[in-house]
Amino acid sequence: MKNNVMLMLVLIGATSFTFAASGEIDWVEKVHNDINTTTFNNSLSPENDRMYFTQVASDFSGIGIYVGHLKHGKVTKVKPLQINGMDLQGTDVHISPDGTKLLYSARSGFNSDEPLADYELYMSEKSDNGWGIPKLLPKAINSSSDEFYPSVTNKGDIYFARRIEGDNLDIFVSRYENGSYQTANRLGQEVNTGILEGDAFIAPDESYLVFARMKASDSMGMTDLYISYRQANGWTKAVNLGPSVNSIGIDGSPFVSSDGRWLYFTSNRESKSPEKFDNQLGLYRVPFGPAPVLLDLSSIDYGSSLSRDGTYMYYSNASAGFSSRQLMQAELQQGQVVKQSPLLLAGKSFQGSDVQLSPDGKSLLFKTRKNFGRLQGRKDGNIYIAERSGDGWGQPEPLPDTVNSMVDEYYPLLTNSGNLYFSRQTAAQSYDLYVSEFVDGKYQQAKPLNSKVNTPYLESDAYISPDEQFMVFVRMYVERDYGVSDLYISYRDQSISNIAQSWSEPVNLGAHYNFEGVDGSPFISHDQRWLYFTSNRTSDQPSEFDEHLGIYRMPFSLRIEVTSESR
Questions:
Q1: Among residues of the chain, what percentage have pLDDT more than 90?
Q2: Cα–Cα distance measured from residue 540 to residue 552, given in angstroms and rounded to the nearest whole number
Q3: How far apart are alpha carbons 69 and 77 in whole angstroms?
């Protein structure tokens, strides 16, 4: 018998996800999977209490649209969707964001057994009497080829897939202007790459697109889910949503709940042979969230730390070419910047970076190469601390030699226990994460974290939860990661007394948090609702480290619960 610590990621709302011993997160929940049928494609009512989906018998005889009650991520009371007393035959059902329109694809007209030459898109409108008779959408959308998987925006624009040749599909959009649908246009090469792209869910405000791509070079299975964000000049290059969503089999038919919290999709991950297209399709969901929002600051801003009440943010601002770096503070209202100014310590502004506030708000740490005090004349980067004095801050002092060495130290962060985590240079272009335990009022000799966290890659910028239960940090230059530097998460096993050795195998936070450029300097608000981080997403060349750094925030509705299990 031995104690095995299981780390549970608990979504606010009491839904839990298990962390496997390998350190991989099992994010995915089963929503509906009837072994006697094949179930795929889904769409939710605006209230997220009804799920519409396609279901066929296990021998693929007949195909129809069904509806069920959705509660706590489970579907019950499933029945055929009826219109005018008739079961609706078709596939790829979609409910518009306002709940007034139902779209689907079919190869025969409503209440008709006469087959059409190809799959066409239909629309039904809702009235007080229920769903109206479906009508064929116009030729601006329906062509002489197959059309599948419609998805509607707030403005009424329809995104859908059209067969191009053979088994290949591309994603198109038809704009709704002046009361009519315009001729559909194919999306660009950021989305359509010449292989099968389909099953597109468009965000109601068109801020992002989630879709399926088949057998791409970076795919994990037969079909994977990808995401692309809309910018002023078009769509970003689509990125794979990663192993937290995709499996070795089929993953497709995405739909995001109206509150933005859940991505629902189709998968055959429970099949005995998921790498083959079989009839073992079911409906699943995984936590999701809206895109990051850039805070309105100056030009080159990075590294952030918040007061407990979220009304003040401390960060660094760099001049062009990074010739100087100044400590800054900003007043926040509902996460938005309303005022910013230089941070004054003992009445003076300071050159430095990586400013972090202690959990109790009484201490402030930062890194600087403009050394002073007992470190006057040193050229390496060292960590300093200032204590709260009335409404301001006292004179900063360098931390002891148990923390500051003769090489660079970066990104300090204090925990409730007083333990200090930071980064230390280990080679010309590499850093590792260290911890200095606070014992009897003194910082002990710093120790590197274990080899699960510190690898031959660059590890830095660690946010540690105040209770030291989990850590979000940066890992850089990893082949097949999403970008130049990605955010990772690791969890502490408290059954291991050696703190430096107690951290789990890190897991990449995935495509929703990371992109093709630089992502770093994470900080999680004290209510654990928001992740603040630094990124160069506005750069025209994000893979190159340039001056397009800004501070972003996005929902992070996760907290940690530690339980133990005997085996």
A1: 67
A2: 17
A3: 6
Q: Burial level of 369, CB count in 10 A (0-12/13-18/19+)?
A: middle
Among 427, 449, 453, 452, residue whose Cα is nearest residue 437: 449
Q: CATH number for the 343-560 domain, one of 1.20.1070, 3.40.50, 1.10.3210, 2.120.10? A: 2.120.10
- Domain limits of the chain? 33-287, 343-560
Q: Which CATH architecture has domain 33-287?
A: 6 Propeller (2.120)
In single-letter form, the type of residue at position 540 comes to D
**Contact partners, residue 353, CB within 8 Å, separation at least 6:** 302, 303, 316, 318, 325, 327, 366, 367, 368
Q: Is 186 left (phi over 0), alpha (psi -120 to 50) or beta?
A: beta
Q: 402, 332, 411, 325: which is closest to 365 by C-alpha?
A: 411
User: What are 231's two structure tokens?
Assistant: 């910018």
Residue 380 clears pLDDT 70, i.e. is over it: yes
Strands in 358-457 per DSSP E: 363-368, 382-389, 392-393, 397-398, 409-414, 420-427, 430-436, 438-439, 442-443, 447-448
Neighbours of 138 (CB within 10 A): 13
Distance CA 76, CA 72 (A): 11
Per-residue pLDDT tens digits for 48-73 = 999 999 998 766 667 899 999 999 88
Helix (H, G, I), strand (E, B) or coil at 374: helix
* CA-wise closest residue to 199 among 418, 42, 348: 42
Q: How many CA atoms lie within 13 A of 283 on its CB side?
A: 29
CB 383 within 8 A of CB 368: no
